Amino acid sequence: MAGKFEQYHHENQTWVRSLDFFRQENSYLKTRLSEVVDGLTDKDFLALAEHFQNQFIVKDEFMAELLHDVHAQQELMKAEYKKQVAKPDIKLVKKHEKLSNEMEYLEKDFARLRGEFNKYLTSLL
Question: What is the CATH classification number for the domain harbouring 69?
Fold first, then answer.
């Protein structure tokens, strides 16, 4: 792949690796939450635990959608590249920009959620 196609391909591969990491980290956080919940019965904690559990589930769903979109983007790029056009069409560029923005959002929001969760557990234990 040449030029923008090559760069887009590289970014897509990076996103797939990042999503794999975030999915593993999210799974770890859910496991940690269940470990802590097993030892505590405080109603306020259980309500907040449910909040975090819901947030982790929402992140799982968002990451699954993103991974699907990244794979779809890769297929679009392959089709465009096979046409031997000099550069991606505007639809592909816009889709790539959208994915880039969504990945940036996920990275920031996941870091925020993980930080809030860890701070809360530290204050509790």
Answer: 1.20.58
